[in-house]
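From the methods appendix. Each design record in this collection lists the tokenized structure first, followed by the designed amino acid sequence. Records were kept in a plain field format so they could be parsed without special tools. The example shown here is representative of the layout used throughout.

RECORD:
FOLD TOKENS (191 positions):
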């Protein structure tokens, strides 16, 4: 299924596999197994997505249940209510919020500039975490995340490396990798 929507609104129950181009539009989608989205100045609401690839410019994405997300976003807001497996995203200016990360997730790999990132992780597990960042990047984590340690990589250019375990429980297979220039990284625990 290939769709082009410009200056319009659409509600679709299901797309098994397809490509969508959205321009200055709103789309509500019930579920998809595999979807590629190219969007500009649009809003996308998805109930359930197994495999989603995005190229977003000045957009708002709201995803209720997500397994895999790949892509790029610029000046965009991406909100995921429930996340299960892999999230690989490059983002410039905007916000990425993942509200309920599954303890069984495999990979969160984010490259960001001037983006706020909020990850809500299960409180009874820990994940290997590796963050390369500059001095303008703020990292906020609960006190129980004492396994994260920061070291200076390049004092002159104010480059840092924060790594270790995020969480306070059994270490799971999931990995969190980030390369961030400015913005905020906020870790929160969920029960």
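DESIGN:
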């Amino acid at each position: 299924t290939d769709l082009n929507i410009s200056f319009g609104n659409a509600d679709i129950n299901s797309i098994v596999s397809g490509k969508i181009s959205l321009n200055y539009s709103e789309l509500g989608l019930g579920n998809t197994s595999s979807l590629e989205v190219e969007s500009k100045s649009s809003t996308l609401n998805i109930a359930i997505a197994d495999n989603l690839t995005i190229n977003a410019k000045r957009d708002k994405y709201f995803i209720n249940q997500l397994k895999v997300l790949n892509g790029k976003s610029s000046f965009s807001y991406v909100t995921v209510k429930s996340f299960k497996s892999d999230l690989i995203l490059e983002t410039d200016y905007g916000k990425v919020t993942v509200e309920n990360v599954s303890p069984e997730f495999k990979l969160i790999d984010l490259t960001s500039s001037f983006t706020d990132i909020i990850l809500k992780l299960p409180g009874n597990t820990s994940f290997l975490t590796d963050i390369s960042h500059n001095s303008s990047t703020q990292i906020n984590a609960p006190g129980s995340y004492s396994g994260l340690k920061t070291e200076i990589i390049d004092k002159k250019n104010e480059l840092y490396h924060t790594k270790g375990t995020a969480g306070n429980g059994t270490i799971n297979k999931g990995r969190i990798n980030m390369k961030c220039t400015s913005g905020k990284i906020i870790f929160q625990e969920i029960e």
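APPENDIX NOTE: The chain is about 0% helix and 80% strand.
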